[in-house]
Amino acid sequence: MCLAIPGKVVEIFTNEGMHMGRVQFGGVTREACLDYVPETQVGEYVLVHVGFAISRVDEEEARRTYEALAELDQLGELEVPEVEESAGSRSGSGV
Amino acid sequence: MKYLDEYRDGPIAAKLVERIKRAQTKPWVIMEVCGGQTHSIVKNGIDQLLPKGVELVHGPGCPVCVTPLEMIDKAHAIARRPEVIFCSFGDMLRVPGSDGDLFRIKSQGGDVRVVYSPLDCLKIAKANPEKQVVFFAIGFETTAPANAMLAWQAKQMDLKNVSLLVSHVLVPPAIEAVLSSPQNRVQGFLGPGHVCAVVGYAEYEPLAARFRVPIVITGFEPLDILEGVLMTVEQLEQGRAEVENQYSRVLARGGNHPARERIARVFEVGDRKWRGVGTIPQSGFQLREEFREFDAEHRFSVEAIDTMEPEVCIAGQILQGIKKPHDCPAFGGECTPQHPLGATMVSAEGACAAYYTYGRHLKDADLTLHRASASGTPDLVTLGDQK
Ligand code: SF4
């Protein structure tokens, strides 16, 4: 579980003082914290580990790494449903 | 056994194997530290492509596997409390404690949730102000920036119903423990690429010098691993013991500065127990005094727990590279991914699970069948019983 998944930053915003982004992985888009790669721009690629971008990579590296992770069946964490903001939601409970 | 022509980059892989063969004149034992590398090596049969004189042994780099039993039992005790929403990465749900796993607690009515990111806990805490949200903060250095941010944000947002059960481990002290063991056979290391993307690799330099071992920071793709092995073998043959970076397209010597800074603000280094291995001095993170109020161990006083590890399990020796899954009498029989006795059989990065998933418990004839029916995408859960 030390592997990070590469994705493309498609949107940047702030939430609770954190620099956040929407990052696209194959067909899935997820929220990720960009505080550790603050210079990242929309359209660039980052390595994301448990919702945090830890490093920027180029497009070619992103593609290779993504394919390698798919071959290793290591993209499963992207299937965990996103937790919604709404009060009382139990959407984090999927297993 | 996997053949080179099944590789996406077969011709390049063949060249690397050829260069390793030419470079190697003496027998060498090399440990890959990261569980992602172990998974990739076993899946791609890289260990079987290498010349006989180059042996790969699997290291302690699976955070799920090394989380100590006491901590798992503590997690279970907290998760059973009615006021608690217990959040964890999915891998931890099937790790056996002294009495069952988190899945069982969930099926018995405990509110156990799998989260994608530690930050999900903030949303869950805000949506459930009457509940206590506890996050099982495990991992190596790669995960530390994420877990540090949860504690940091909880403090900024003054959330009184969030806490972390911290069981964080560090790679360099584990390498030191492997090298200091009287049973050690390891002569060179493939260092963990994504761990070093966060913390860099300067810390490995004193280790390489003190123990006279080459450490090559390596990625996890088959070509990365073959190149890492080649660089390690060349150092060994030439009598060098340096830290080299095979993975330079992803990481720099200093790692990620903002992430390191945040980790240092939230965590301090302390002694940690590793499952099956014992306490390794200064080998893990714990919350600093300023964040102690967010420490679940502090918030929920869990009384001393008597742990019970199955006697047959040799996961501790496997994690130190002393033994391999085949050496365990329970491997593939009593112990399978469906009924894991030890944590190394749970996580896809654990050596026992990787060996089992890729048919290493089968004879050659059965293996052909196993691989045909697995149709190239083996799944840890469904593959188990095809014997
Ligand atoms: S096969 Fe099972 S019992 Fe044996 S060492 Fe591995 S996890 Fe432990």
Description:
The complex is a heterodimer of chains A (95) and B (387). By secondary structure, chain A is mainly beta. Chain A has one domain (5-75): SH3 type barrels, CATH 2.30.30. Chain A has one helix and five strands. A five-stranded antiparallel β-sheet of chain A has the order 3-2-1-4-5. In chain A, strand 2 and strand 3 form a beta hairpin. Residues 86-95 of chain A have low confidence and may be disordered. By secondary structure, chain B is α/β, with parallel strands linked by helices. Chain B has one domain (1-387): HypD, alpha/beta domain 2 (Rossmann fold, 3-Layer(aba) Sandwich), CATH 3.40.50.11740. Chain B contains 17 helices and eleven strands. Chain B has helices spanning 10-23, 35-43, 46-49, 63-66, 69-79, 102-107, 120-127, 144-156, 171-180, 193-199, 204-211, 222-238, 257-266, 296-299, 315-319, 351-357, 364-374, and strands at 28-34, 54-61, 84-88, 111-114, 132-139, 162-169, 188-192, 215-218, 243-245, 267-274, 278-287. In chain B, strands 4-3-5-6-11-10 form a six-stranded mixed β-sheet, with helices on both faces. A five-stranded parallel β-sheet of chain B has the order 2-1-7-8-9. In chain B, strand 3, helix 6 (102-107) and strand 4 (111-114) form a beta-alpha-beta unit. In chain B, helix 1 (10-23) packs parallel to helix 12 and helix 2 runs parallel beside helix 16. Chain B starts with 9 loop residues before the first helix and ends in a 13-residue tail after the last helix. Classes of the chains: A mainly beta (95), B alpha/beta (387). Chains A and B meet through strand 3, strand 5 and helix 1 of A and helix 2, strand 4, helix 7, helix 8 and helix 10 of B. Residues 312-315, 318, 325, 328, 330-331, 335, 341-342, 344-345, 352 of chain B line the site of iron/sulfur cluster.
